[in-house]
Structures are given as C-alpha cells and as structure tokens.
Design goal:
With 103 residues, this protein is α/β, with parallel strands linked by helices.
C-alpha cells in the first residue's frame, strides 16, 4: 500500500488492512514514528524525493500554462509563502499548494 495523502497518525488505522508481511510506503510529511504500529510483520518505509536542476522551473511553467496534471488546491503570493508552508505542515491539504513568484 502506498500512502499519498494521510497524515502519519492516521496510518496506524490504515495499517490494519495491509496483508500479513505486507508493506506500507508513506510519501507524506511527517514520517510515522517507528514502533507506533501494532504489528511486527509490517514493513514500513517513507519515500522522499529531491528536485533536480530545472525540475522546479518545469513545474512552474506547467502550472502557469495549465498543463500540470495534478489539481491545484490553493495559490499564494510569495509574501504568503510562510502561511502556505504552515498550512502544508499543519493541515491535510488537497491538491498542490502553489506559491507564485510573480502575482
């Protein structure tokens, strides 16, 4: 099972439906704390990726021209970047949060 949306504390409940000896891969922040699951047969991993040079430029261009395939949940001005980060970390967001360099 791959988690792309749920916060770490909700994964404990989800882990109960993973088959014995299965894996639960997490791609959200924060990562679950080790030892929080009621099962010792579950393999747990967290996946983070890093942008390469040019990746963010391409994403920005695709967001601006409307060809970005992921839904945009909210847009922020650069001055509201700290608020966007807090909402990303503290809330369950749907879609991508876009911080525009030029409004």
């Amino acid at each position: 099972m791959v988690n792309l949306a749920l916060p770490a504390d909700r994964l404990i409940e989800v882990s109960r439906v993973v088959r014995r000896g299965g894996r639960l891969m997490n791609a959200t922040y924060p990562a679950p704390e080790p030892g929080t699951y009621e099962r010792d047969d579950l393999a747990m991993g967290t996946i983070y990726s890093a942008a390469r040079p040019g990746d963010l430029d391409e994403l920005a261009a695709r967001a601006n021209d409307g060809s970005l395939p992921a839904a945009i949940g909210r847009r922020y001005r650069l001055a509201d970047g700290p608020r966007a980060y807090l909402e990303f970390v503290q809330e369950h967001t749907r879609g991508k949060l876009i911080v525009a360099m030029h409004a």
